[in-house]
Amino acid sequence: MTRHVSPRLAGYATIAAAALAAGLALGRVELVAVAAPFALAAAIVPAAVRAPKLGGTFELDRERALETETVDAALTLSSPDGADRVEVLLPLPAALATDAKNPTAVRLPRGEPRTLDLPLRCDRWGAFVLGPALVRARDRLGFYSWETKLGGHEPLRVYPSSETLHALLPPLETQVFVGNQLSRAKGDGIEFADIRAWEPGDRLRRVNWRASARRGGLWVNEQHPERNTDVVLFLDAFTDVELDNRGTLDMAVRAATSLAHRYLQRKDRVGLVSFGGFLSWLLPGSGTQQLYRIVDSLLQVNIVLSFAARGVDVLPPRSLPPKALVFALTPLLDVRAAAAILDLRARGFDLVVVEISPVPFVDAARDPLDELSYRLWELSREALRARFERAGVPVVEWRDGVPLSVPLEEVAAFRRYARPARA
Amino acid sequence: MCAYGGVFAYAVEREHERLAAPATIALGGIGALMLLGVLHRAEVELLVWPLGLLAAAYGVAIAVHGSGVDEGAPLVAVGLFLCGELAAWSLDERFAIPAERAVVLGRATALGLLALAGLGAAALVVALAATSVGGGLAWTTVGAAAAVGVVALGVALARRAEAGG
Lengths: 423, 165
Known about the structure:
The structure holds 2 protein chains of 2 kinds. Chain A is of the alpha+beta class. Chain A has helices spanning about 5-25, 30-50, 210-215, 250-265, 290-300, 335-345, 370-390, 405-415; strands at about 1-5, 55-60, 65, 70-80, 85-90, 95-100, 105-110, 115-120, 125-130, 135-140, 145-150, 155-160, 180, 190-195, 220-225, 225, 230-235, 240-245, 245, 270-275, 280-285, 325-330, 350-355, 395-400. The model of chain A has no long low-confidence stretch (mean pLDDT about 90). Chain B is an all-alpha fold. Chain B folds into 2 domains: about 1-130; about 135-165. In chain B, helix 3 (about 50-65) packs antiparallel against helix 4 (about 75-95). The longest helix of chain B has 30 residues, at about 100-130. The model of chain B has no long low-confidence stretch (mean pLDDT about 80).
């Protein structure tokens, strides 16, 4: 516990001493009287004040929450001898807020624990460590103060809310495992695909008797098998453009969460690659556990400034399985990310670029020079987009405030009318 | 500021002959400006200076006034003390830490009690001076010892403050 003494205590002693000395020198009792309250305060307060013994715990009612939810934090303080004034502050990150008084000053009765409730409103996703609380005890008049920290570190993970996506983008090719995605290939399945002439080895139950009767020979049904998809969320974490707590990384994390949630619901395998100054990946997997892994991993994504040249060749091959549908979530601001995306296309991945537009987060140009550079910047972005499109990669722009299903529908339309180019 | 203004007005009013009125007004005025500065800039370390200047202004007024004992001295003492404490309280409130009622009442009570004790001590000093006890040398020695003791206390407190901070 760190102790501080108010400078006015020494100041009062100085005033008392000076007034006494002046009273003696001038022979004026009034100055001695003036010294009396100051001398009394300087003498009584240090003798009367004792350092309080403070104890306390800090607890959260849960470790995980969704955005906009409220988590209850409880800070329990106690002092066996009591404390006249205890100021408590729980440092909160910008993403968390409380309507309760923080900081606040309370009185601790002797031996009675006191619990301060702080309902924490989760305004934004993130992984946080809350606590310890900063505590400052003071004597009644504020001459002495003691500072300490109480309570431990409590982790809190706030998950981003996911958007409702009614339709998901089908992959060009499915994987070999059973899932909910209809394969383009023909095989054993439920969904009818075509009929063909009977061949030795075809089972009797596959015979289409109506077609056989009409055509005068045996014809069998063919089905599309139900397969699953490997989806890789490729997050560009090189740069972030922010304005008022909203930014491209924030949008990318929200999009990745929504996509992971919906694809995993459909029994697909989803993996994650965070490609930036700090490289991380998560091998594709399925199930609720994988969703938690992905979201936990997304919460750790941070922009780390790096000038190191980096390509997709540094990623382990299993993180990018063949025939996977790769969603590149990028603001298209870093040339390394753009080069990596083109590299993925060249490797034959089914690639979709969701360009998270940084334009809404950039201030409008104010003078002609700024306007010129702004236009040049936009032109360079157009050129990059055209480069992707020439390589057969659908690039859709996603702006803040627009539902994610809109760019996904644009990709579906692109695929409907454009044949995938073979790189 | 009210407590300061009251003591300042009293000190100026005390001086009937107007011999040292400019000095009293100057010291008190500078002190008032300093107090405003201290409150504005929240410099609690400098709080002692306006109090000291006002005490000096009062001392000048008393010294010029003559040999009679000023019976209002205990009130002046408590006024100065309250000025310092209330200024410190207002500076503490700058941190915008909402305190519950019991905390505010506790401080107000403690301040009131300390001010009353100070008033009593100052009144006792003035009352003792009014009675003719005799033995001027002995009283002077006791007074000097008290002054030395208070200086020693101030030095000790300053050292503890430095060690704590």
